[in-house]
TrEMBL record:
Species this chain originates from: Polynucleobacter meluiroseus
Superkingdom, taxonomy of origin: Bacteria
Protein name (record): Signal recognition particle protein
Gene: ffh
Subunit structure: Part of the signal recognition particle protein translocation system, which is composed of SRP and FtsY. SRP is a ribonucleoprotein composed of Ffh and a 4.5S RNA molecule.
Domain text: Composed of three domains: the N-terminal N domain, which is responsible for interactions with the ribosome, the central G domain, which binds GTP, and the C-terminal M domain, which binds the RNA and the signal sequence of the RNC.
Length: 299
């Protein structure tokens, strides 16, 4: 990964060549550059500050005689630290908890445009093909008929079953009817798509809290757009305060965002990152990998 570093980091790695230890003085300039690199990757400022404290503490006195230059050693420390912050329980990455009496309910939360509906399609495909589960999807978005149609389309595309709903119903009624249907027809998993607004909104939060209370989902997944950058933190905070989130899906990593949101969201909420979205198409879902994300943030 060292060859993919940002220009600013590789420059400093070079200037530190020939020094045998990381000291206060030779580390200071590098830490300044790392701070800028993290900010450029859209890691939130408070998260950058706390990371730099930990990195400084771990780096000082690190013996780097021999194999690497101090600059490279420091970048190694930084990369390990970033990966450690983002690494949840390894068993959670790329997995969903389905250990309950079927149907296992999975509730999707996030702002409009985050990628919830697309992620429902991707998860339905993953659950059917990789886990051999019988999957039902339902939309509780009673504000946008197009959202319901979009869910129907992606569900059919991946060959799962779609439970119809319409904008004249109440979200809780839709959810109860879908759950009842899923039970009576022996579905293993019910994926519940929800409405999103363009910003945080009390009515939206109350609605999804009510859905959570009535559905008792085993997974409540927060879907967040990697391109949101710094704003991802406030959104994550608001959803985390409103709901007991169990996992995060970070979407649109096929764009040119460096993925700093992964670090911020994990550090602020402590909720494990489970999947990343890497394409619009239904196979564009991958298990979250902390090491690869750490390289991407620095590179
Ligand atoms: P929702 O409002 O949260 O349900 O968001 P949608 O699922 O409708 O997604 C909003 C837009 O983002 C759509 O145009 C999707 O095709 C696109 N999208 C979602 N996930 C990804 C992803 O991982 N990569 C890319 N490139 N586009 C995505």
């Amino acid at each position: 990964m060292l060859e993919n570093l940002t220009d600013r980091l590789s420059r400093v790695v070079k200037t530190m060549r020939g020094q045998a230890r990381l000291t206060e003085s030779n580390t200071a300039e590098m830490l300044r550059e790392i701070r800028l690199a993290l900010l450029e990757a859209d890691v939130a400022l408070p998260v950058v500050k706390s990371l730099l404290e930990q990195i400084k503490f771990k780096a000082l006195g690190e013996d780097v005689v021999g194999s690497l230059s101090p600059g490279q050693a420091l970048v190694g420390v930084v990369q390990r630290e970033l990966a450690q912050v983002m690494r949840g329980d390894a068993a959670q990455s790329g997995e969903l908890n389905l250990a309950t009496q079927p149907p296992a309910v999975i509730l999707m939360a996030g702002l409009q445009g985050a990628g919830k509906t697309t992620s429902v399609g991707k998860l339905a495909k993953f659950l059917q093909e990789k886990k051999k589960k019988k999957v039902l999807t339902v939309s509780c978005d009673v504000y946008r008929p197009a959202a319901i149609e979009q869910l129907e389309m992606v569900t059919k595309q991946v060959g799962a079953e779609f439970f119809p709903s319409n904008v004249n119903q109440k979200p809780n009624e839709i959810a109860a009817a879908a759950l009842d249907w899923a039970r009576r027809h022996y579905f293993d998993v019910l994926l519940v798509d929800t409405a999103g607004r363009l910003g945080i909104d009390t009515a939206l939060m109350e609605e999804i809290q009510a859905l959570h209370a009535s559905l008792h989902p085993i997974e409540t997944l927060f879907v967040v757009d990697a391109m949101l950058g710094q704003d991802a933190v406030n959104t994550a905070k608001a959803f985390h305060e409103a709901l007991p989130l169990t996992g995060v899906i970070l979407t649109k990593l096929d764009g040119d965002s460096r993925g700093g949101a992964a670090l911020s969201v994990r550090q602020i909420t402590g909720v494990p990152l489970k999947f990343i979205g890497v394409a619009e198409k239904m196979d564009g879902l991958e298990a979250f990998d902390a090491e690869r994300m750490a390289s991407r943030i620095l590179g």
